[in-house]
Amino acid sequence: xxDQPGERFSAVDALLAAxxxxxxxxxxxxxxxxxxxxxxxxxxxxxALGVRVPSIAAWEAGRAEPKGERLEAYRxxxxxxxxxxxxxxxxxxxxxxTRPTPASAHQGPTSDHVPESPDTIxxxxxxxxxxxxxxxxESFGALRxxxxxxxxxxxxxxxxxxxxxxxxxxxxxxxxxENGPLAVVDVEDGQALAYGVGGLVLDVPVKSLPxxxxxxxxxxxxxxxxxxxxxxxxxxxxxxxxxxxERVGLPSRLSDEERLSGRLPESHKVVKQLVRxxxxxxxxxxxxxxxxxxxAEGGRRQCVQLCIPSWGALDTRHWLDAAYLPPxxxxxxxxxxxxxxxxxxxSTAVTGLELMTALHPPTRASEPDGSGKRxxxxxxxxxxxxxxxxxPCEAPDGHPLLADLPRFHQRGPAEVLVEEAYDWARPLTDxxxxxxxxxxxxxxxxxxxxxxxxxxxxxxxxxxTDPVFDPKLPGSWLVDLSHVxxxxxxxxxxxxxxxxxxLPSPFTPKGDRPxxxxxxxxxxxxxxxxxxxxxxxxxxxxxxxxxxxxxxxxNRLRDAYVATMADLGVNAGLAPEDFxxxxxxYRDNDPQLAIVVSAIKATVKxxxxxxxxxxxxxxxxxxxxxxxxxxxxWRPDIRAAVISKTRTNMHRKMLKHxxxxxxxxxxxxxxxxxxxxxxxxxxxxxxxxxxxxxxGGFRLGVSPGMVKHEGTQSVLWGEGVxxxxxxxxxxxxxxxxxxxxxxxxxx
Length: 747
Prior knowledge:
Layout: H1 5-17, H2 28-37, H3 42-49, H4 53-61, H5 68-84, H6 136-140, E1 182-188, E2 191-195, E3 201-203, H7 209-218, E4 237-240, H8 242-247, H9 256-261, H10 269-276, E5 280-281, E6 289-297, E7 300-307, H11 316-319, H12 327-340, H13 348-359, E8 363-365, E9 376-378, E10 423-425, H14 430-433, E11 437-443, H15 446-451, E12 456-457, E13 462-465, E14 475-480, E15 488-491, E16 494-497, E17 517-521, H16 522-530, E18 539-542, E19 546-547, H17 551-567, H18 576-583, H19 591-610, H20 636-661, E20 667-669, E21 672-677, E22 688-689, E23 692-693, E24 707-714, H21 715-725
Parallel strand pairs: 1-4, 4-7
Antiparallel strand pairs: 1-2, 2-3, 5-6, 6-7, 8-9, 10-20, 11-21, 11-24, 12-19, 13-18, 14-17, 14-18, 15-16, 20-21, 22-23
């Protein structure tokens, strides 16, 4: 923060140098108009003048006036802006907040959009101008560091509806949600403040939860436009700090009993306040992610989502230390995630699933009937409104479809589909023991890459006997793949000879060769055909209603990940050496954006996992339905297809690498593979010729499907930990930092 008068004047001059425009009047409303016309935030002005953001807010509202040196500095700023931004000819200088915003004053930082990628088409009615590139401020405004809490956030009070027109080369703002998708509510010096994206700060004139909900829906202008033309706008998200919880009468922590149940009791005074105010809660009640709503009226939703970090809403495995950030910084993290992925709807897993539905809403408006009226109808390409039963082989243990099985029956490979990620390891050969290093490489967003382009079932399965395998037909196939010999396979169009004992089988998670008929998803069987072997299924459950349901999901998450990594200094297209350098300590470049990266990756894995959610307590007993089965998005077949594709993608790269270099992995865990090498870098074993990677093999880079350096340990370390913990220890699990937290039991 600036402390000396000369430094304040210099800071003001720097602000003036960054803008251009015309006229000033000292009335409070005019002060706001001038600052907004220049595209300046209250945080920027506060930092230049050496004051706190609430002081700027008070000056602009007319509640207080600056004094002494700060008065002179503030007047100097207003004088400079007055010459650049003349008041409109028809505007009165004394009309306070009745202020039209000129096109040149469009504020990127307060927009709840970021530019879509070139291959993502967004309807114009969703708040985008097709063919217009975003300004630099709009591209990066939502990611601007908030700075120190004492002078960190631009403030912009919601006033009367403003006339907003998109400036040339600008993205239009949806005026309904002009303050962004979410706000973090905190209490400072007795004043409740809402911190939004881009450093926005709003006064919150409420002292109870019902009044906070009313304010959010009527004044806050929070929310996010729908992601699909037939979808729904995102409800506003309000994050409550511990101080805000105290203000509205909620506990800062849940009791042990409340934490286990995941909610407050219905007898809690705040829950009763909501009931008296005719607000409702969803079935999951008032927990870390609470939804408060009233039935829609005239098609208008009335719903607010609450996020309570101190109750455990932001899992540290995925959101790292986000729950402990100052309010403005937390708003930046969650706001960046919201603009690039979607407004969080719960855990990252829940949000990953909700993103699928948001991109493929279950219904759409029909064409007008004879009377001109439209009706709700099934949206083609979506999973619809109702659940679909899996095939018996796709149902997990305990599913109602399996209720007639004997109580302790263990289904074998010919009865149950088991498509899981790799967990495989082998002893090192003598040649590998002679090398110095074990180097781990990790596939970026592996499950997202596995989802890309994968044809999955949309509707219910159809049982077929003695089917002819079709690699374009999604489903589950009962087939014997034990005849596939990895010692001789096709790689591309050529047969190659390999040491098959040094490669995991592509057909089982543990890498074991199949011993007979088993159920497999389509990508696994298709890979057997790709390796040059005939397949003869005896039975299948196929889905004739199918499509590339996850492509849009992949595209949005890919764009979010790549854009955020670029903000962290890791750009696409870097040379291999430059990429490794950029990745070294990239999280330290902006720890807040590193949290966003972690959350995006967790959204991918969690969303895929949620497709086969298992019972979560609730008194469930085997053979009975559980809550998740009622969702259209409970689809274990889609999960199986994605994991199958991910695992075979990994195997294809390892096979290509072995055929070209004679090098084989010593351990594979999900998307991480470990190789023995003479040097500590991936470049010490990955074949690059003139900067170009092996076609079809591993390639260093930031995009999904490409690989990064996971970690390096010595061969002596590897041999030592296996001797201590057993030969089955998977080195890929610990290659990152070498710490053995527990003995790997394989469970």
